[in-house]
Design brief:
The protein is an alpha/beta fold and 252 residues long. Helices cover 45% and strands 14% of the residues. It has a seven-stranded mixed β-sheet with strand order 4-3-2-1-5-6-7.
Length: 252
Amino acid sequence: MASRGYAFFDLDHTLLPHDTQALFCNYVLKRERRRVLLHLCFLPIALLRAMRLVSTLRAKRAFMGYLWGMPLERLQRYAHDFAETSVLPWTYPELLLEMERQRSEGRILVLNTASPDFYARDIARVLGFDHCVATKVRLTDPLSFQPAILANNKHQEKIEAMRAEIPGVAALTVEDRNDYCYAYSDSAADLPLLEFGGNAVLVHPSPHLATLGIRREWTLLHPRRPYNSRMGDLLAVIRQVLGLYPSEPGAE
């Protein structure tokens, strides 16, 4: 085998119970309240996305409009501080233990996320990952209104990006992956990642994904979340994109 084995982790709703794009927005808006007005430009795109009339990629670009005009140095500072202070408190303790177990067994830890790379790499560093694969965003100084996305790291793209960027991954055989690799995710969109990882671990999967996981003898984890339903998650997101959510558990 070309490596000691790998453990691939999704980020949003897998390592922590929230979407980090919304959490990062919450972090920024707590410091620059007036930027919430820029969401008015995103609302039409959000409605069209809800009706499936625009793509996820288009909506992702539009959502980042609240960062319009921000100096690059300030964005990078926010990303660094967000990772240092706000991510770890929200990370599931059970998943931190899983990371530690995988590390102690000699596996290389890979954060593989659809979140933007301008903060995902800082999160990977803080949580102790060896590598990070994320959505690549073209940053300008100051930031453009809807930053260009160079590579949206979703579905099969997650696998191709790892093969291209992470030493040893392209050389893994099916036997290597089944014997030495693991993959963690909450989402059916990550089926390529879960299947590639050989040994899949599902975190709060949907009923359909849970049924598939049970049939395939995958591991299911249900760590405690700060909400009890999809509606509770949605309400948390609304508060986050308005900058009204606590920075860490129990801070209200």
